[in-house]
Amino acid sequence: MIATPALRDTPGGELAAWTHMWMVAASLTLEHLEDSWVDAEPASSIGGRDALSLVVIDAVRNVYRGAKATLPRDSPALARFDGAHPQLVRIRDFFEHFDEYVAGRGRIQQKAGTPADEGIGMQWKRSASGGPSGHTMVIAVREGGERAEYEVNATLAVKAAQMLARAVLEHAGLLDARHVGACRYCR
Fold this sequence. Notes:
This protein is an alpha+beta fold. The protein has helices at 5-8, 11-34, 42-70, 76-84, 88-96, 98-102, 107-111, 154-172, 177-182, and strands spanning 122-128, 136-143, 146-153.
């Protein structure tokens, strides 16, 4: 099948194209993250990877957002993504509203009755990089009287986003042999 320009020039086609662009943004940022290690500067390398992880998670979340707007609710691709990354939307919300969560005033914290005057409401707990396991981050968030930890692996999240974007393109009729041949992320 060869995708026709008419398929791209529809709201669904345009949404699929944006979803694909967000997936490529996540993939390219992850590649930069993985290549950013400097042996002589491990602390700076870890900090740089953590910073790039924020961008990766935002981009992956936008792939998910585009997929939810494009694919049917009962889509197996959405179900697989949700099953593999159930906390991704929440983690992205933490990152997007970091100022509120650090102060203890995030939406989840308010629902849990977290007092805003009890110190730090959210912390970057730890991160680990390297090898085939990729870059993993752990965020600790005070919710009510407890601290919950949320973990996300940037590498696995991007791989899942690539599969999700491919499903979106296929659903929109834009995944053709030419695209698969040209896009290393959709192969």
